[in-house]
Amino acid sequence: MVVATNLGFPYVGAKRELKKLVESYWSGKTTEAELRQGVEGIQANHWKLQQAQGLEHIPSGDYTLWDRVLDTAHQFGAIPTRYQNIANPLDQYFAMGRGLQKAATETTAKVDVPAMEMKKWFDTNYHFTVPEFEVDQAFTLQNPRAVEQFKTAKALGIHTRPVIVGPVSFLKLGKPVKSGEQFDTLSLLPKVLPLYVELLKQLAEAGAEWVQIDEPVLIFDLDAETKLAFEKAYKTLKASTNLKLLVAAYFGRVENNIYPVKDHVDGLHLDFVRAPEELEKVLPLIGENQILSLGLVDGRNIWINNLEQSIQLAEKAVAALGKERVFVGPSCSLAHSPFSTEFETKIQQANPELFSWLSFSVQKTKEIVVIAKALNEGRDAVKAELAANAAAIESRRTSPQTTNKEVRERVAQIPASAWKRASAFPIRREAQVKKLNLPLYPTTTIGSFPQTKEIRVARQKHNKGELSDADYDAFIKSQMKEVVEFQEKVGLDVLVHGEPERNDMVEHFGHLLYGYDFTQNGWVVSYGSRCVKPPVIFGDVSRRGPMTIDEIKYAQSLTSKPMKGMLTGPVTMMKWAFVRDDIPAKDLCAQVGLALRDEVVDLEAAGIPCIQVDEPAIREGLPIRRADWDAYLEWSVASFRLSTSGISDETQIHTHMCYSDFNDIFDAIVALDADVITIENSKSDEKLLKIFETKQYTNEIGPGLYDIHSPRVPSVEEMKKRFADMLKYIPDELLWANPDCGLKTRQWPETEAALVNLVEVAKYFRSLKAQQA
Fold it and tell me: Which parts of the sequence belong to the Cobalamin-independent methionine synthase MetE C-terminal/archaeal domain (predicted)?
């Protein structure tokens, strides 16, 4: 019979219970034993829920306290030297993810270690921790969580399918630990494979039958060496165990990458949401004793599945392979989807039609079970479910909520002149230098300042009606005033208003645009314990009215220094939402671009000299396969230019990108034609800067001086060294000093200390330059 299965579940919990547990542990309010007990409770609830839904293969090993790639590095002993003096394994693990800074005591030495680098997880908004490897890396197997979680579930009477990160993806996603060192991390495969064999042995001894091995890099453009590594790895693993091995690839098409693994596994899971066209190509390649697991339910988005379409696709597999050799499941782990729509009472009451279109993780497991039941017992067995689903699908297709004629006509009539600035950068820069009169190496921040408990409480009270509009507005203004005064005291050159009125850089603007709606509990993990609640784009997008003018005008009135208007760019507004999938992405992005263009024009008219339009999502939205890049970059870059081109030369446009492989899209970054770009740099070992040795970037740029995702405060000397490294690649007149990203998640003491150091560094190098002159 067709098996209903899952690849992973939202480990953060129904209401972010895991986030609260680990943050309580970090603050010293919760012991390690209490943390582990709490995690086991979350796991048990999730396993039981999936079992009650009717899933037959329930994952274990997918729960993590920070990140599954970090779990893999830690369990195999790939622990960089800087963390090895941290005795407690759990504290060592968290230090690798978020850094650790502790003063010396009578009994303990000082600890000051930065976090490991983070990168976007393929084209999602999730971040993973990049493993670091030595040329002579030694691996050891210690406390594998897949074994631990399998045993825990087994003790509850639930037989799960353990999930592990595969050896090739683990090595391929890593990097050399030493800056500038060049070696192929896949050369370590012979060293790590015996540990994987031992891991499979432990799982077999614990009683596992199937093991899911996630190898998402199978969707990359792979070279011959990587394909050979896959073949060697799975020949070895298959020969070493009687366990059934299911290799899972997701987020795109595998194409010819299937060949190195197909003969050495018991099953393959592929993403047929992203690549439904691959099914007919793959079916003839499945061996007579192999399973094909169909990723039919979108694990990345929140729309209901078209059950009839999924069943029809699955029927092709059943016809070719038989029911006994087909699994059905989500396209990828449901960890990228919110927990359950049962908490969305506001949408259900205010917009029941929209609510009928939504499906979160719990509902997606039901969809998987319905598809499997239809395949096993026929459509009549799920007649009611299919009828309700078809009605909701048709409702979404025809609803007036999804279409705005005026918006679509405006997009269709965009003039050619609207897609770029009127003058080239050198002309604009001359006008901006005259107007802004900034010093050499100007200092600024990326936008947000700490969102304190006081701010969060005031927002909650205002949302509940416990704080009047007038009182809330006065409170927000007081917070902006404090931030402006702080920046002037520290000595920053281009100021921001701190964004105290914004809960999230996308959600805030979504409330001010037509076509967006908002969940109460639609949380997904971004990195570590950091969760975001993306808005839902369900219809055509346009501006309701001015969005930021009053706040920025007020902030500018408090200072004679230039103030930046702060906006979120069109690609990020789209990519960091649960985006509609019923119109082309480029058309939706142009709609958002026009709405932002109206705001940029209004900010300039209000006297704001600098406007930052952040686009951290451009790189993460890049298609996996390079063959698809050009089309995406053409419309995404054009949408940014559309939003920023309606102003005069003297108004300075900034943009920001964080945790991106900047080098991958360098030409697109140039094409954005922002006057100033700020980028993540502090954990990248100069690799983002090295491209300036071979390619020319003539606009202004601020590579980040320190990592804001860690609570540690880098010293002046540390920042001086990093700034000196920047000057190797970037001309003096183009270089800015700024943090890596916004400061929203930080505390005030560390924020003040870090920015004081940053300004001191800029002043030091200005003085040095003056002496040289």
Answer: 442-763
